[in-house]
Amino acid sequence: MLCITLGRTQSSSIVYQPEQMQGDLNIYKTILTKAHPGTFTHQTTEEFNAMINDMMLQTSKPMSAKAFYKILLKLIAKIHDGHTQAYTFGKLGSIINNQQRLPFQVYIKDERIYILKNLSQQKITEGSEILSIDNNLSNKIVFEILTYYSSDGESHNGMMHWLGGPYKSFNRIYPEIFNEKTTYDLVYRDYKTREITKTTIKSISKEVYSTRASKKYKSETSPQKAFMYRINTEENYAYMKISRFFKDSYEEEEDTYPIFYKQCFKEIHDKNIKNLIIDLRNNGGGKASNAAYLLQYFVDKPFTPAQEITTLGNDEYFSHLLGDTLDLDTSFGLKPKKDGTYRVTNHGLLRDLMTYSPIEDYSFNGKLIVLINGGTSSAAGIAAGLLQEYTDADLVGTETYGYAGISNGVRQISVKGKYTETAIYLPLLHAKYDVHEHIQKRSVVPDYHISHSIKDKIEKNDAIFEFALINLLKVTQKIPRQDTTIKTEH
């Protein structure tokens, strides 16, 4: 039996031996090859094996645990699946989680990095552009990070969007990739004066970052509603914002979203509204069936969202591979296919496979506009893809994080390394949606590519919504201003 020891340097960083790292790389290779349904969607078997061999070579000498984790990040990023993640646990997990952070929230556009929120103690104007950090130019920084983190498909927009958010934030990931330091040399162009300044900034802890952010930006802490709509009768449009495709939990009543949709479309029908803007920006996903219920109001014939949902094996297969039963056979009604994989036949848990009929009572036949961005992911990416496929909607914004016609997020497992404090989180089921085969493997691309300038972000101007409002609404006779806006939230 291999005896595992976690050596430590004087700086208390964990050091792994070659047999530890290579032992876990072999585990991850097996799992990604035999369990993950999308490992070879964007790479060949030969490319995958070549990468594993290169990593075996890299780990032929002792290495810090943090450096090994970066190798694992690259392996996972190459899969280009947003539901597949590498993570750490134990002592290494604590080290990674408690790394010092950059004192900024950023906005990334066109390979340029802007300071959106300044949480340092220096008077740097928000909106200023970061030109370099420790002599690393901003575009080099962005592309280096993208070799360690990716989104669905091979588009970069989704990940660049997420670097500006809370989950894969730039302030946390930069020290992780470019090495944690107490100070950094920063060169920036001031937002107001346009002067280029070089300064030294101090990194801060996660707790200090959170405390400063809550004090400085108190008004932004309220939770976002799952869905809401409002009607502007003067301009003759309805605006529907869907922030996620579940309200409170995945186990909630199945009619939660259908009830909301019915209420919304009835009012649109009763008020003779001819324009509808559906906002899917920053929608992190949820249940794809809730996207299908929405689509029912726009189609004139029955449809089935998912063409097929498959997995690489049944309970016996995964019990042998993982040493544990997953109760897939009963839950999903798995049936063998000729290619050795298994297809889902039980629609109870996966309503994406059901056939949905048009809802005629309050169907919408007017102008449809859908807003998307790099935060539109998972089931929201599917929703955007289906709306693009089945309707004549104009999609406005930027390319989504999530696939147009694939989802690998239905059933997921975690596999921990035996010899290192690293792990991977991966899906077991692969859904192929009824979207044109030539765009299934890419994120959803808008018809009108509109993004925010840093000026828009600082001044909180919604350029994407404004573009749709000014340029795409079907013009109708104006209605007097009384009772112009009706708003409902859930």
Give an account of the 3D structure.
The protein has 490 residues and is α+β, with helices and mostly antiparallel strands. It has three domains: 7-90; 104-204, Pdz3 Domain, CATH 2.30.42.10; 227-421 and 428-489, 2-enoyl-CoA Hydratase, Chain A, domain 1 (Alpha-Beta Complex). Helix content is 30%, strand content 22%. The chain contains 15 helices and 24 strands. The chain has helices at 18-34, 45-58, 65-77, 90-97, 138-145, 157-162, 170-178, 206-216, 256-270, 288-295, 315-322, 328-332, 379-390, 454-459, 463-471, and strands at 7-8, 14-16, 63-64, 85-88, 104-109, 112-118, 129-133, 136-137, 183-189, 196-202, 227-232, 237-242, 275-279, 306-311, 335-336, 342-343, 367-372, 394-397, 406-407, 412-416, 422-427, 429-433, 448-449, 485-489.
- CATH superfamily assignment of the largest domain? 2-enoyl-CoA Hydratase, Chain A, domain 1
Backbone structural class:
alpha+beta
Cα(first) to Cα(last) distance is 56 Å
Number of alpha- plus pi-helical segments: 15
GO molecular function, one term: serine-type peptidase activity
Protein name: Peptidase family S41
Organism: Aquimarina spongiae
Pfam family, one: Peptidase_S41
